[in-house]
Amino acid sequence: MKKFKKLDRIEWITVICLILAPIVIAMLLPIINFDNGSDDGWLGFWGGYLGAVISIFAVFYQIRKQKEEFDKNNSIDFLIIATPKKRDVNKKDVNKGRNTTEQRLDWAFSVYNIGNKAGSIKFLGFCTKDDFRKLKKGEEDESVISTPTIPSSSGKFLRVDYGEVSEDIWMDKSSMNKLYGEGKKLLVVFQDPLGKYYTQEIVV
User: Comparing C-alpha atoms, which of 196, 66, 201 is closest to residue 128?
Assistant: First the structure.
């Protein structure tokens, strides 16, 4: 939106300059002793001049509308999904001397591509809202983002087709409670190849 507003201001300045240019020229002609020309001549000049200005801005408007349509059809956007889920976890039974499987409630993080084309995104970790605000302002670097355990997909870009949901990235819930404290509000942070961050707030 800011970019379009900036373009609008530039266009208005251009319009004003184009309208004022012939007026300024007409005011300067007597000063520099040029013939002012007849009324019919000036009417013809203004008609041709304003017609050209209108045609130019019609072309600019059409180009901008086509660019907006192109950007819309080729947009990449993601929605972060954070859900506590039960999963089967292998656990070594010392008494029985073999591995057993138990169900455990852990955090599952996935990414839903809500854009209009396939895109890539990677998991970074967790941070507080305040630290993320400082990161966005450049007051902090990405060291404010941490993770209690490193999932196998950490640091790797996951390709997600448009309209699709990525595979789950699992995080040990008990490890998160120990590191951050139970009931702590955090942001889970992802990043695309262009450096744009995507976040979702969770309560540990």
Answer: 201
